[in-house]
Amino acid sequence: MIFKDQKNKIITLIIILSIFLLYFILRHTNNHTALAYITNQGEDTVSVIDLSNKRELKKINVGESPLGVHILSRNKLAVIGNVKSRTLSVIDINSNILLKTIPLNFTPLGITSDTSEDRLFITDWFNNKVAVLSVKKLEVVTTFNVGLTPSGIVFNKTLNYIVISNRDQNTIEIYEGGNYKLVKKITTGLHPFGIHTIGHYVYSANVYDDSISIINLNNFSTQVIRVGMHPYSVVTDKGFAFVTNTQDDSISIVDLNRGKEIEKIAVGENPENLSIDSNDNQLIVTNWGGDSISIIDLKTYKVIKEVKTGLQSRAFGSFIYQ
């Protein structure tokens, strides 16, 4: 009986140790360093930035005038839109090697994907269309017409909507993610450009109005909040919105519960785009005029480092793999 009890204890101990070992392995496997893929429009490269160590790992040559970027996390691909050469560059995140260059018959600007990462949606700036690209085939399979000069584009996972900002029409358009039918067109401030969506909300940066518009997707009501000069992009995190002000070299912090700007953070020259590194709780800002990124601690709202990248760093879209 005593021997049997000891044997059971040993078996129980082995099971517990195995569970802890499995937990450690899974945690270690999934805990990778966040990487930022920064398009350098002035030198036709992409800088790969290690956001934990805050340094550039590599520069990758891509097409002419890279601007837009979208990370396909499940597929471990970084997709780059090249404005001048009218191509897409596809980068393998595991090796940071250019896998393929996809020719297009239009100028790509904003890029996003559906939840499954089966389809890419790309705004066609000059022809007022959105191209739908099969990720499996890496080719355009269809297009649909939208408003004037479509710029930013995001996919709302909650409602399965494609959301587009039409810069020269001063509108946000919402389309069904499956059949591409127009759901609603909503007036914003002047020249909406960068947009962001989460839950039941859409946020747009209105360049000429020095404001952001917040759209409730349940009832399509709109709230407008003043920010800095010539806002370009917006992102949200934990009840706050962060907005790049391109003409006063700052980031506006907006308290969404109070509905107003509460602080400005000085960053590099001509900040344009931004994204959240949730791994290290950092806000990453691209500085077009400063050829750099600014890294902001989201606990203190202080710039903790400016990392040099390439000439005219932009990264319009979701540029962080984490």
- What spatial form do the alpha-carbon principal axes imply? globular
What is the alpha-carbon Rg in Å?
22 Å
CATH architecture of the largest domain: 7 Propeller
CATH class of the largest domain: Mainly Beta
* Termini Cα gap: 53 Å
Give an account of the 3D structure.
There is one protein chain. The chain has 322 residues and is mainly beta. It has two domains: 31 residues; 216 residues, Methylamine Dehydrogenase, Chain H, CATH 2.130.10. Helices cover 9% and strands 55% of the residues. A five-stranded mixed β-sheet has the order 7-6-5-4-28, with no helix packed on it. A four-stranded antiparallel β-sheet has the order 3-2-1-29, with no helix packed on it. Strand 26 and strand 27 form a beta hairpin. It is globular. 45% of the residues are buried. About 2% of the residues have low confidence.
Detail the topology: elements first, then pairings.
Blueprint: H1 2-30, E1 35-40, E2 45-50, E3 55-61, E4 66-72, E5 77-82, E6 87-92, E7 97-103, E8 108-113, E9 119-124, E10 129-134, E11 139-145, E12 150-156, E13 161-166, E14 171-176, E15 182-187, E16 192-198, E17 201-206, E18 211-216, E19 222-226, E20 231-237, E21 240-245, E22 250-255, E23 260-266, E24 271-277, E25 282-287, E26 292-297, E27 302-308, E28 316-318, E29 320-321
